[in-house]
Design a protein that fits this description.
Distance between the termini: 28 Å
Radius of gyration: 18 Å
Order of helices and strands: EHHHEHHHEEEEEHHEHEEHHEE
Number of helices: 11
Number of domains: 1
Number of strands: 12
Shape: globular
Strand content: 15-25%
Length: 257
């Protein structure tokens, strides 16, 4: 099973650590695109800071991210699952898993990244700012650089197993699952049901997906089909409705955190 997660725009900058080594990252076939994007991103941010912030869609309070990007090849690195600190990753809380579940996470989770394509949780990366919607000068859209290599990696890594695509729309646009995996690809939507109506709550959607992935890892679940995944989630206590390859998780209580 390969589980695709979105990154978080918010990231924790490590205080110490070795500099970035692209050759050490998982999914080595993505290295040429990583090198290209990294080079153009660093060059942009070493130039006019105001222009760089505008290209990257950064506001006045995020100006420091330009300086960090300008020195990415020298910035300290940490595990990807320690760099990403958004709602989904807080709920997933990989650091608190036991040894076996953490090992399963490192082998089954792939985190989408506009800069790196896909990452394993234990890949060592610096904090960076680059969204999947950015168009880099003289290079074009970030998404355009990933649309060919990412589906190839998904195909290779999924093999004859199940692909669980939990990415947001921005990061799905980097590379959709190949058509030959269509029948073995599951997506997920979290619906809050209240007084007979259902709606998507963004914050809770992310947190619930984090909890679901954590539950799968703790249970050592290895579903091989969408049917298997639906049954496994039901066994774990979730209310699941299916529409083709999409599983709707229906919840009534929205926690405060």
């Amino acid at each position: 099973m390969l589980i695709l997660l979105p990154p978080s725009e918010g990231k924790t900058r490590p205080e110490s650590g070795a500099p970035l080594d692209l050759d050490s990252l998982a999914f080595g076939g993505l290295t040429p695109v990583r090198e290209l994007l990294l080079r153009h991103l660093v060059k942009l941010c070493q130039g006019n800071a105001t222009r760089a912030a505008d290209v990257l869609g950064l506001g006045p309070t995020q100006a420091g991210a330009v300086a960090v990007n300008a020195a990415l090849t020298e910035e300290p690195t940490a595990r990807a699952d320690a760099i990403y600190t958004g709602v989904l990753f807080s709920a997933l809380d990989l650091t608190s898993l036991d040894h076996d579940a953490r090992k399963r996470a490192d082998g089954s989770i792939a985190i989408a990244s506009a800069l790196f394509g896909l990452l394993r949780p234990d890949d060592l990366i610096p904090a960076y700012r680059l969204s999947g919607t950015v168009t880099l000068p003289r290079l074009g859209t970030v998404s355009g650089r990933w649309r060919t290599p990412l589906p190839r990696v998904m195909r290779e890594e999924t093999g004859d197993g199940l692909l669980v695509d939990l990415r947001s729309g921005t990061y799905t646009a980097l590379g959709k699952p190949p058509v030959e995996l269509a029948e073995r690809t599951a997506t997920m939507r979290v619906l809050h049901e209240h007084n007979g109506t259902r709606k998507v709550v963004s914050h809770f959607n992310k947190a619930t997906k984090g909890r679901i992935v954590r539950g799968l890892l703790e249970a050592g679940a290895e579903p091989r089909t969408v049917d298997d995944l639906q049954a496994t989630l039901a066994d774990l206590g979730w209310t699941i409705e299916r529409d083709g390859g999409r599983l709707d998780v229906v919840v009534e209580d929205v926690p405060l955190s």
